[in-house]
């Protein structure tokens, strides 16, 4: 058990993945932790209004899985016991890249096939056993409280969805030493700061106008395949459609299809089947055409990348921190959101440990600025990966791609080409995608040299064809 902070009370706003993990971390540092959620938490692994994406495919990358296992020992085994499927991402996944099929081979890289509802429910159950964590459900945070000179946070004001005896939803003030906003994409933190005469953060937005549609199925009992997951990746700007198919607990399978550049998937049964049938590989269509639908067809289009630059604020409200989607949201189709949120919470844990060393008296001065700057470095890599791909769509709106991004596209196209027949290159790319290794891994000599050889062959062939055409002319 870690030594607790001298401070008494921490508030976490939002009960999604970022908020749940932060509450777990705070329980080791503060005497009391209050997690405030606008929804009423369901009693089982079922969807709730506050996570509209829960009905779509969710992926927990291996880095996120490792951190969660440290915070919740035995979580992976508990997930598997509840029906989650272990998946070797290099051997069990049929992945059609823009350059062709990724080579398959046994690896140490694994993930689990599960519903988002199952993961959240298991973690909430774990948190409920921690004595100093209190859930306050069905409440909206209306604003932040500050001390008398307005320099640091003093708590939050909340309004319950339940009316009082007089029929009025009255506001209540909850005092705290530290407030963490993990309320997601709809965070009101910029407005809260403005109300206290603090400058809200600048924003960077990039939108590829991508939407996705999902449905649950039960496959026929005689269905057989040599894969557990199929991922048919888009290849913009020419191929804007993609599809993924993955097993979940309770003998269910989830289909998620997406399209960029406003090529939104349909939400009717015939249209969805036709959309899947239009894919360059029939594997998913063959699996679902005779399968039993288990759910309605759900769609989601809030996929823009949005970075609220709290790391650039000229002045910080001490003791108020923002992380997860409340600080930086990525296009969800790249599967980075949950792992990035977990990494952000882990970074907060490190900053609190440092703060305790610098300020053993419990003073939190300087924590907000230091944390937001460190969080920005964590967010920079998944932001680069997501926006680089979104720039490939012709209709993407936002800042124009830099020359570096355009050069990266050409380089990564060659790296992906190598993943179709080089196991070591594919493994390196997967390790970067699962946030186990930095992107610089893809610029090591063992990868750069094959890429340069490939470029040399391509240029030589191009020059030869050009010369032949000129002679023929």
Can you tell me about this structure?
The chain has 473 residues and is α+β, with helices and mostly antiparallel strands. Helices cover 34% and strands 22% of the residues. It is built from twelve helices and 21 strands. The chain has helices at 17-26, 62-71, 75-81, 116-128, 189-195, 269-277, 283-288, 337-358, 367-390, 403-418, 423-433, 445-472; strands at residues 9-13, 32-37, 85-88, 93-97, 100-101, 110-113, 133-137, 139-146, 153-160, 171-175, 178-181, 203-206, 211-218, 229-232, 241-248, 252-259, 292-293, 298-300, 305-308, 320-322, 328-329. Strands 4, 5, 13, 14, 15, 16, 17 and 18 form an eight-stranded mixed β-sheet that branches. The longest helix is centred in the last third of the chain and has 28 residues, at 445-472. The model has no long low-confidence stretch (mean pLDDT 92).
């Amino acid at each position: 058990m870690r030594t607790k902070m001298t401070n008494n009370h921490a508030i976490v706003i939002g009960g999604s993945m970022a908020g749940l993990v932060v509450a777990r971390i705070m329980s080791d540092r503060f005497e009391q932790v209050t997690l405030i959620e606008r929804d009423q938490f369901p009693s089982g692994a079922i969807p709730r209004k506050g996570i509209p994406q829960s009905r779509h495919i969710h992926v927990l990358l291996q880095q996120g899985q490792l951190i969660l296992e440290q915070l919740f020992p035995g979580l992976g085994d508990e997930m598997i016991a509840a029906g989650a499927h272990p998946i070797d991402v290099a051997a069990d996944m049929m992945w059609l890249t823009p350059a062709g099929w990724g080579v398959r081979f046994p690896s140490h890289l694994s993930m689990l096939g599960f519903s988002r509802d199952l993961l959240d429910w298991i973690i909430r159950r774990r948190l409920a056993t921690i004595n100093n964590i209190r859930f306050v459900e069905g409440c909206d945070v209306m604003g932040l409280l500050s001390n008398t000179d307005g320099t640091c946070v003093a708590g939050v004001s909340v309004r319950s969805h339940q009316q009082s005896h007089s029929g009025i939803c009255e506001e209540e003030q909850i005092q705290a030493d530290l407030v963490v906003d993990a309320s997601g994409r709809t965070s009101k933190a910029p407005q809260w700061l403005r109300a206290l005469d603090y400058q809200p953060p600048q924003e960077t937005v990039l939108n590829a106008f991508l939407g996705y549609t999902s449905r649950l199925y039960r496959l026929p009992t005689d269905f057989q395949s040599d894969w557990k997951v199929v991922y048919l990746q888009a290849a913009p700007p020419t191929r804007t459609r993609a599809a993924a198919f993955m097993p979940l607990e309770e003998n269910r399978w989830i289909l998620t299809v997406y399209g960029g550049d406003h090529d939104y998937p349909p939400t009717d049964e015939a249209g969805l089947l036709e959309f899947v049938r239009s894919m360059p590989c029939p594997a998913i269509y063959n699996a679902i055409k005779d399968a039993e639908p288990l759910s309605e067809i759900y769609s989601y289009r809030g996929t823009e990348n949005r970075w609220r630059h709290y790391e650039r604020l000229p002045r910080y409200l001490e003791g108020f921190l923002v992380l997860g989607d409340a600080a930086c949201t990525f296009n969800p189709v790249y599967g980075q959101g949950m792992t990035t949120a977990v990494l952000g919470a882990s970074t907060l844990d490190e900053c609190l440990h440092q703060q305790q060393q610098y300020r053993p008296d419990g003073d939190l001065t300087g924590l907000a600025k230091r944390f937001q700057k460190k969080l920005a470095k964590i967010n920079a890599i998944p932001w680069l990966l997501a926006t680089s791909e979104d720039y490939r769509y012709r209709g993407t709106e936002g800042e124009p791609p830099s020359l570096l991004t355009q050069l990266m596209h050409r380089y990564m196209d060659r790296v992906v080409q190598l993943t179709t027949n080089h196991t070591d290159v594919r493994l390196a790319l997967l390790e970067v995608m699962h946030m186990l290794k930095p992107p610089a891994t893809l610029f090591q000599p063992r990868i750069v040299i094959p890429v340069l050889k490939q470029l040399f062959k391509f240029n030589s062939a191009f020059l030869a064809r050009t010369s032949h055409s000129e002679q023929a002319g």
